[in-house]
Amino acid sequence: MKKILTVITLALIAFASCVRDIPHLTAGTMEDLLYDLHKAQYASSYGEDKYDYNEYVYSKAVLQKYGVTQEEFDSSMIYYLRHSDELHKIYENIHERLSNEALSLGADVSDFNRYSDFSANGDTSNIWRENKFSVLTSYKPYNYIAFKYAADSSYHAGDKFILEFNPKFHYQDGFRNATAMLAIKYNNDSVIHTVTTFSMDAYQSITLEASPDLKIKSISGFILQNKNLNETTTTLKLIFLNNIRLIRCHQVTTPSQQVADNDSTETTLPSKREEPQKDTIKNLNAKDSSKMMRKMLKAPTNTLPRKRAPKDVVLPKKL
């Protein structure tokens, strides 16, 4: 048993040393290179055609700028994929630099801070509590992000939830394939959900509306990079998620709807004139009551049609 443990320990040490020995660029150089690489990829996406060719040309120009070969870049990415904390820090800096540059070039601040000024108790609010930026790799457990928020008093029946984000695929090879899911759990433990798949570098959103008759217990979901068949673990596959938001919208009744509701309520209530008069005779005094009864008894009898006897029937004479 001790020999087996010794062998396992030595294997782990060897694996760790191999990971450390993977040739890679420094964090600062990697950040600058990836920053320029993303700018080049976005620039290539604005062409009318030949997107793949433009992306290849622009990316190759960035690597030449830093004197880095494709093999050196790939090995560096493999190293940082296995050191996700360092990679996450690099991309946090890249996200900040790209946002600052966009603002300096005249981008609208609302494009970056949409819903950020809304309070959690407002009619429309951003309830996302995680990082607004994330990187999905092809390695578990870094191939997905998940969330689950318990409902509080600010959640209302009939609320609408919108999960939105901007993805950017960076694939060395293979088919782009990712999934997003949003689910609502009610107090009776019933669940509704919606799922969407995406494979493009474009704004994505998924919407789910709660029932107006059930109380919400929790909201949950995930964004997952799917694994394709016959896929090798060394293939570089990254999905950069930017501006992640989970928007909650209360269903607000418009003034016209309120007026219509008030009108319908008023028509259903009986007016005083329409109320039936109950116990009319009981409310009269004895003198009035007797007069009414005599009047009813003295009513003319000829008001009703008189039936005629058949011709062959002889009426009895009065005695």
Question: Could you please describe the fold and organization of this structure?
Answer:
- This protein is an alpha+beta fold.
- Strands 1, 2, 4, 7 and 9 form a five-stranded antiparallel beta sheet that branches. A four-stranded antiparallel beta sheet has the order 3-8-5-6, with no helix packed on it.
- Helices cover 38% and strands 22% of the residues.
**Major sheet size, sense and barrel closure:** 5 strands, antiparallel
Distance between the termini: 134 Å
Give me the strand/helix succession.
HHHHHHEEEEEEEEEHHH
Query: Count the strands?
Result: 9
Pairing-aware structural class of the strands and helices? alpha+beta
User: Mean pLDDT, nearest integer?
Assistant: 75
Percentage of β-strand residues: 15-25%
In short:
The protein has helices at residues 2-21, 27-44, 51-66, 70-81, 84-104, 110-113, 255-268, 280-283, 286-297, and strands spanning 124-126, 134-136, 144-150, 160-171, 178-186, 191-198, 204-209, 216-225, 237-249. By secondary structure, the protein is of the alpha+beta class. The radius of gyration is 39 Å and the shape is elongated.
In terms of topology, how is this protein built?
Blueprint: H1 2-21, H2 27-44, H3 51-66, H4 70-81, H5 84-104, H6 110-113, E1 124-126, E2 134-136, E3 144-150, E4 160-171, E5 178-186, E6 191-198, E7 204-209, E8 216-225, E9 237-249, H7 255-268, H8 280-283, H9 286-297
